[in-house]
Write a structure and sequence with these properties.
Largest sheet: 3 strands, antiparallel
CATH superfamily: Winged helix-like DNA-binding domain superfamily/Winged helix DNA-binding domain
Order of helices and strands: HHEHHEEH
CATH architecture: Orthogonal Bundle
Number of strands: 3
Radius of gyration: 17 Å
Shape: globular
Number of helices: 5
Strand order of the largest sheet: 1-3-2
Distance between the termini: 39 Å
Oligomer: single chain
Number of domains: 1
């Protein structure tokens, strides 16, 4: 089923930060890894990814450096301490949001002892 892109837009930076949590990556690698981890639910385009990476870099959440992969020089991105803190905040926001949506979809929260 095709995904409504507006559902993805607000969470894309969180997903990118999550990809970089344990490993530095270059752009195309992030696109491929996001598709793999999501069973192709998220098919990010380079035109969407790179402006997002530049914004995250300006915010101090990630840093960029050049490295070699398969004999080619690539721009790698890594998570900063500020980025780790931002990821924690975004994950907590997502958990609260998704829990609220799930409660509504399931008919409302059950009140224990009421």
């Amino acid at each position: 089923m095709p995904m409504d892109k507006t559902l993805v837009t607000r969470s894309t930076s969180m997903l990118i930060l999550k990809l970089l949590e344990n490993q530095d990556m270059y752009g195309y690698q992030m696109i491929e890894e996001l598709a793999r981890r999501s069973d192709d639910t998220f098919a990010l385009k380079a035109g969407t990814l790179y402006p997002l990476l530049h914004d995250l870099e300006k915010e101090g959440a990630i840093r960029c450096y050049e490295g070699s992969a398969a004999g080619r020089i690539r721009k790698y991105y890594s998570l900063t301490m500020e980025g780790r803190e931002l990821l924690g905040i975004k994950e907590a926001e997502w958990q609260a949001f998704s829990a609220g949506v799930n409660k509504v979809l399931k008919g409302g929260a059950c009140l224990v002892g009421a």
